[in-house]
Each structure stands twice: as structure tokens, then as C-alpha cells.
Specification:
It is a single chain. With 414 residues, the chain is an alpha+beta fold. It folds into two domains: 225 residues; 147 residues, Aminopeptidase (3-Layer(aba) Sandwich), CATH 3.40.630. The chain is built from eleven helices and 19 strands. The strands form four sheets. It has a ten-stranded mixed beta sheet, sandwiched between helices. A hairpin with a 2-residue loop joins strand 15 and strand 16. Helix 8 runs antiparallel to helix 9. The longest helix has 17 residues. It is elongated and about 70 Å long. The termini are far apart.
């Protein structure tokens, strides 16, 4: 593949192509999970750092920016080529293709030496803070009448792990600027360590921004349960004995094919809508969000990424899990259980079964539970760090004033 000649362009899309110099690919480092890892950060103000920068080989990078209703179809071929490098479900083409293209810039970066290097989404419109500070942050979507449900731009970027992260970030932002979009401050939240933006060395200011709870399953299930807390094992044993005393019959079934997933998803929506979640974000009260997720799961099922697992007790749905696998991580995206069977702890039994199955599955090394919840403690979950990134546009006078103000607040804080 050379340049972007093979990229299909939609009839009603605008395409802008910008070529510029960028740092060559040979600087890249890979971490243990196959993602992009930043080289050691250096002080760019030092003479040695400037000398090192001067002798680095340079390469041609080309950034294509697409606007208009063509949306994902303008970049589909390239995004799908990068899909094997995804670390989050929001980086999958099955997720991105469902986004409303209104207000989105679709960016693709290639170099002279090979195939597409990166793809990303950025908003066409900025949030404006205070006295006209233009904040470049998340891609906004309107779902169920709620505008501003941000899908973080930090997560909506994907790159070849052999690419130079800093060169790619510079290329994306330069192409974004030359396409006519102006910004002062870049603000991205809840970035994972695998993020392209985090991996870019000497770029922006990183700060902790919460974490992602997960269970490590790269071990035999016998070992996992031997290391589990006594309280957790006692509770699970008590639940199983209660099922035996009541002579309950139980079975776990998995939906994997598109048709199975579509049916199981509707069952999940009905089950979730019966319980306490009905008034705090259940799909039954958010039909547009539910339809977005249904399309995503059904589409991802065609690629073999999805598991909808259900616990049936006496042939009735007692608990259900929605999950999607990306590389060696299983993202447990949503759970629901029948509150009338609360005394049987159906949700706990189904989660314990998922853990045991994942430990014995060589393709799954981690179960990621997304956002922290109080019940995660008793399962002994670890927490992977997340980061907040702030970067200032050096071409913007407003950004320089904002940066000076931030420096002043830091001094006062000390």
C-alpha cells in the first residue's frame, strides 16, 4: 500500500491531504502487551537532547483528513487494517462505524515505507472555556436526547505498534490544524497506558486520572481460587449449597454468533429493566444507546469477538454478562441479574464461572471491568492506571497565556 491511493473516498466527503516531515519509525519501542511504549522521557532543553534530535533520520508522513457524511466509509479500509493492533473495544472498527459522522474529523496517517501508520477521530468543533480558550477533547454524540456524552478522543485513536508515537501525534495534530480546525488546549481523560497519546514521548503533561479494575487470569483456575480471599470463597460455597438445598438446576450458556447475540442482548435489556438499574441508566430507558450497543455487539460477533453469557436457573434467566474480547483482554462491559433470585447470588456464580473459564482459555489473560465499583474489592481486583493529558498549542497566543496561568497556579499550590 502506498500513500493513500487505495483509500476510497465517499462522493459527499471532503478530503484534505497534508504531507510533512516526521520522525522516522525506528524510534519505536514495544511494551509487554504489544502496544506502543514511549522511549525514556528526556529534557528537550538540554544540549544533548537537541543534538540527538538533530541526527534522527527523517521520513515523509502524509495525513488525510475527511469530513462529511461519508464518515467511516472514507477510512474503513485503513481502520480495518489497523484493527489487529486495537487494545480497547472503542478502537475496533465495529464500534467506530456506528458513530454519527456529524461533527467528526476522520484522520489517517501513512508514511513512505509501508502501510497505514495510524487512524484517529477528532471533533470539528471545540468546547470553549472562559475567555475563548478552545478545548480539543472528546468526540461528542447525541444519544437519547443527551448531548455531550463524550466518547474520549484519546481512546478513538489506533496506531501500528512499530510506528513512532510522537511522530504520529505530531502528524495528526498538524493535519488537523491545516484542515482548518483551530485549538488552544488539548485535554484527554482516562487514557490507558496503551494509548497513542500517552506513548508519545515529551508530549504534554500527564497526571493520574483514576484506574481500571481488572482480574489477572493468566494462571490456572486452581491457582486463582487458591489465592482468592477466604470471604469470597466462603460466599460462593454458601451460594452453591443454597442452590443444592433448593434443588435448583443451573446451566451457563454462551451466545457467540450474530443471531444468538442479538437475541441474548434483548434478553439482557429485559432483565436489566426489571431491577434497580431501571432508574439509573438501564438500556430499557435509553433506546438509542441500546440500539447503538446492539449494533456494535452484533457486528463484533461476526468477527468472533463477543460473548453474551447467561446463567439459567430452572430454565429462567437469572444473570447475564455482555463482554467483548480485544487481543488477550476480555472487557466485561455490563452485567444484570434477577433481583427475585438475589438470595442465590446468581451474578456472583456467573462471574466465578467466567473467571474459571478465562483462566483455562489461553487467549484470555485479563478480565477488564471498566469503571471501579464497590463490589470489586471482594474479588481482589487490581487497578491499571489511567491518565489525564493536557497539551498546549505552541502556535496559539491564547494557549501560551493559559499555560502561564497554569504554571502560576502550580507555584501558588506549592
Amino acid at each position: 500500500m502506498s500513500g493513500l491511493r487505495s483509500c476510497p473516498t465517499a462522493r459527499d466527503s471532503d478530503r484534505i491531504v497534508i504531507s510533512h516531515e516526521g520522525v522516522h519509525k525506528n524510534q519505536a519501542h514495544e511494551n509487554h502487551s504489544g502496544g506502543i511504549a514511549a522511549p525514556p522521557r528526556v529534557d528537550r532543553s538540554s544540549a544533548k537532547a537537541l543534538a540527538d534530535e538533530a541526527v534522527r533520520p527523517r521520513g515523509r508522513y502524509e495525513t488525510a483528513v475527511f469530513h462529511g457524511s461519508g464518515g467511516f466509509e472514507s477510512v474503513r479500509e485503513h481502520w480495518e487494517a489497523l484493527a489487529p493492533h486495537a487494545h480497547l473495544y472503542t478502537q475496533l472498527p465495529e464500534w467506530v462505524e456506528n458513530l454519527d459522522p456529524e461533527g467528526i474529523c476522520w484522520l489517517v496517517v501513512t508514511d513512505d515505507d509501508g502501510p497505514v501508520a495510524a487512524a484517529a477521530l477528532l471533533p470539528r468543533r471545540m468546547n470553549v472555556l472562559g475567555k475563548g480558550i478552545r478545548i480539543l477533547s472528546g468526540v461528542r454524540q447525541t444519544l437519547d436526547g443527551v448531548h455531550g456524552r463524550d466518547l474520549g478522543a484519546g481512546a478513538l485513536a489506533i496506531a501500528n505498534p512499530k510506528a513512532d508515537a510522537r511522530a504520529i501525534v505530531d502528524s495528526l495534530l498538524r493535519g488537523y490544524r491545516r484542515s482548518g480546525s483551530k485549538w488552544d488546549v488539548l485535554l484527554l481523560r482516562e487514557l490507558r497506558e496503551s494509548s497513542l497519546w500517552v506513548a508519545a514521548p515529551n508530549f504534554g503533561i500527564l497526571a493520574p486520572d483514576g484506574g481500571s479494575p481488572f482480574l489477572e487470569t493468566a494462571k490456572p483456575s486452581v491457582q486463582f481460587w487458591a489465592e482468592a480471599s477466604k470471604n469470597l470463597k466462603h460466599g460462593l460455597t454458601a451460594s452453591r449449597k443454597r442452590m443444592e438445598r433448593e434443588r435448583r438446576r443451573s446451566v451457563v450458556v454462551e451466545a457467540r454468533t450474530p443471531s444468538e447475540v442479538a437475541f441474548a442482548f434483548q434478553q439482557f435489556v429485559a432483565l436489566e429493566g426489571k431491577g434497580w438499574k431501571r432508574d439509573v441508566g438501564a438500556f430499557v430507558n435509553r433506546p438509542e444507546t441500546a440500539e447503538f450497543m446492539r449494533r456494535f455487539f452484533v457486528s463484533a460477533a461476526r468477527a468472533g469477538r463477543v460473548k453474551v453469557r447467561s446463567l439459567l436457573i430452572d430454565d429462567c434467566l437469572a444473570a447475564c454478562q455482555l463482554s467483548v474480547q480485544v487481543q488477550d483482554t476480555l472487557f466485561l462491559m455490563k452485567i444484570a441479574y434477577d433481583e427475585e433470585l438475589r438470595h442465590l447470588s446468581a451474578g456472583n456464580i456467573l462471574l466465578a464461572d467466567l473467571i474459571s473459564k478465562s483462566c483455562e482459555d489461553p487467549t484470555i489473560n485479563r478480565i477488564d471491568c471498566g469503571q471501579w465499583a464497590s463490589w470489586h474489592d471482594r474479588w481482589g481486583m487490581e487497578v491499571a492506571p489511567r491518565y489525564r493529558l493536557v497539551a498546549f498549542n505552541h502556535r496559539s497566543a491564547t494557549a501560551l497565556v493559559a499555560r502561564a496561568a497554569l504554571k502560576g497556579l502550580e507555584v501558588v499550590g506549592k
